UniProtKB/TrEMBL annotation:
Pro residues biased stretches: 67-77
Keywords attached to this entry: Membrane, Transmembrane, Transmembrane helix
Biased composition (Low complexity): 57-66
Protein name as annotated: Uncharacterized protein
Annotated stretches, region: Disordered: 57-83
Transmembrane stretches, start-end: 20-43
Organism: Catenuloplanes indicus
């Protein structure tokens, strides 16, 4: 007997039944549809920092930083007709007064008060900006219960939105560093200075702008150009 020859019964069992073929095809179509729905759901997910904003600022942020998936533009009624805060911010400013809460890496949230010439801040009409701290901008603070001098150098770039008398950064990139000097001692090791993502209220003047936020945070900007 040859082991290469197949029995007629075995050969007949290997042929696929037509109904089985149809069921397999239908199962493949259903699986593809479910997988496609899952892919679309996750492709539309958006975890931008702008998601923390609400109201008109959130609508502005969605226009400034659209999701990768195509989506219809917001209707004109959903956006402010005159973003006055953005218009009055456009230009170059010098920070004259500043009191702000800053989340310092490895330390925690610290209240800082400007004690030297302030940084130069540029707001572009395109929704981008720059904070230039120069070689040394000084702030007074209390760190771990001790008086401290915080010195900041470098720049921070950011993107922002403005609406209804408010403005906030939606994205920011820090190329600035800071050092802490405690009780008049030696400066510590430089670390990255965090970019501000504060949601500010804007009060516009001819050549001066006042920004205010929760916890009595405030900045007064004087126009340079």
């Amino acid at each position: 007997m040859s082991y290469d020859s197949r029995s007629p019964a075995l050969a007949g069992s290997e042929r696929a039944h037509p109904v089985a073929v149809v069921l397999v095809a239908i199962a493949g179509v259903v699986a593809a549809g479910v997988f496609g729905a899952v892919v679309v759901r996750f492709a539309g997910a958006d975890s931008r920092a702008a998601d923390r904003l609400t109201g008109p600022l959130q609508a502005q942020a969605a226009v400034a930083s659209p999701s990768p998936s195509p989506s219809p533009s917001p209707s004109p009624s959903s956006l402010p007709s005159s973003p006055a805060a953005g218009e009055c911010l456009a230009g170059v400013w010098r920070v004259a007064e500043q009191r702000e809460l800053v989340a310092l890496p490895g330390i925690g949230t610290v209240e800082v008060t400007l004690t030297s010439d302030g940084p130069e801040v540029t707001y572009q009409p395109t929704g981008t900006g720059l904070v230039d701290y120069g070689a040394a901008t000084a702030y007074a603070a209390t760190v771990d219960g001790r008086d401290a001098l915080i010195t900041v150098a470098g720049t921070v770039t950011f993107e922002f939105v403005s609406a209804d008398g408010r403005t906030a950064a939606t994205q920011a990139r820090s190329a600035a560093t800071f050092t802490i000097t405690r009780d008049g001692g030696e400066p510590g090791v430089p670390a990255e200075w965090p970019a501000s993502m504060t949601d500010w209220s804007v009060e516009c003047g001819a050549d001066e702008v006042t920004l205010s936020a929760a916890d009595a945070q405030t900045e007064r900007l004087v126009r340079v150009e």
